[in-house]
Amino acid sequence: MPNYKTHLLVSLILSLSLFFVFYYYKKLTLSQLIFLPYILFLGIIPDIDTKKSLARKMMNIGFLSSILILFGMFYILLEIKYLIIITIFSIIILFIYKLPHRGMTHNLLFGLLMTFFLFFISPYLFIISYISFLSHLAFDKII
Ligand SMILES: [Zn+2]
Fold it and tell me: Could you give the count of Cα atoms lying within 13 Å of 97 in the half-sphere of its Cβ?
């Protein structure tokens, strides 16, 4: 089973290569490199269903900081919508904690769910991000 460094390296090589091919043909601009961290994250996100993965650690940090901010907003503004958002967040996180390894997150549909919004920014960004996601699935099968 390849670790996150392998997935990140493969994702980086593929993403940058494709990015500069599309840039050469004037389909993307250099400013769109701002999406690179997210595209690289897509290379490791399928392992979010593994306890010790980098993706899970990043999700936990993001979740905890979001909950703290939302509780702060609720404390200051006393609006119930923040509690509803916290509840929805918590249910999603608990659902992810219960996922079996290489289950739903190692699925082509999950990849589409995580990348489809990039299609509205640029179809080429969508292609790069989906290939980054697919590289994870391919390397999980190969190695
Ligand atoms: Zn995996």
Answer: 9
